[in-house]
Amino acid sequence: MGNLILGQEECARVRPVAGGRLSPLVERSRGKNGLPEAGSDEHWSVLIFESLSVGTMVVLVVMLGLLVVVGVYVILVWPLTFWDLADVGLENYGSWLKTVLWSVFAGGSLAGYWCVSGAAFKPRPARKGTGGAVRGAKSTRR
C-alpha cells in the first residue's frame, strides 16, 4: 500500500468534479440586485413535512411547559399546603383535552408553514393611506 496522503503531483492529476468549476448544476438564477429570485425552491412535500414537524415541536414544548408547572406545584405548593387538587374537578375538562391538543398542533403547523415557506420574511408593499386626518385641514364631517 502506498502513502495515503496526496502530494502536489497527485493533487494535480485528480480529475475535476462533473461540470467543472462553474457547473450549471449548482448555478442559481439571480434576480435584480444580485439577490435570489422570490419563491421557494423546496418541493411541496418538504414544506409539509417541515410544517408538521414544527407543529409537533410546539406540542412538545407545551407538554414540557406543563411538566414544569406540575413540577413546581409538586415541589413547592403540595408539600407546604397539602392541597392535592381533589376538589377542583379537573375531570370536567378531560373531554376538551384532544381538541386543545389538536388545535395546538394545527396552529403550530400553520405557523411553521408560514415561516418555512418564507411568507413571514417576504417584504410587504407599503400600504397607501386612505386619506386620513391631516393637521390643519378642515373636517368634512357635519
Summarize the structure in words.
With 142 residues, this protein is mostly helical. The protein has a domain at 42-119. The chain has 3 helices and no strands. It is flat, with a radius of gyration of 30 Å.
Instruction: Report the biggest beta sheet as strand number plus sense, adding barrel if it closes.
Output: none
Give the CA-CA distance, first to last residue. Answer: 99 Å
Share of helix among residues? 40-55%
Mean pLDDT: 78
Task: Give the number of helices.
Answer: 3
Element-by-element helix/strand order:
HHH
The chain-level structural class is mainly alpha
Shape: flat
Number of strands: 0
Quote the beta fraction: under 5%
User: What is the C-alpha radius of gyration, as a whole number of Å?
Assistant: 30 Å
Low confidence ranges: none
Helices and strands in order, then pairings?
Blueprint: H1 8-13, H2 44-81, H3 97-116
Helix pairs in contact: 2-3
Q: Brief description of this entry?
A:
The chain has helices spanning 8-13, 44-81, 97-116.
Summary tags:
mainly alpha; 142 residues; flat; 3 helices; single chain
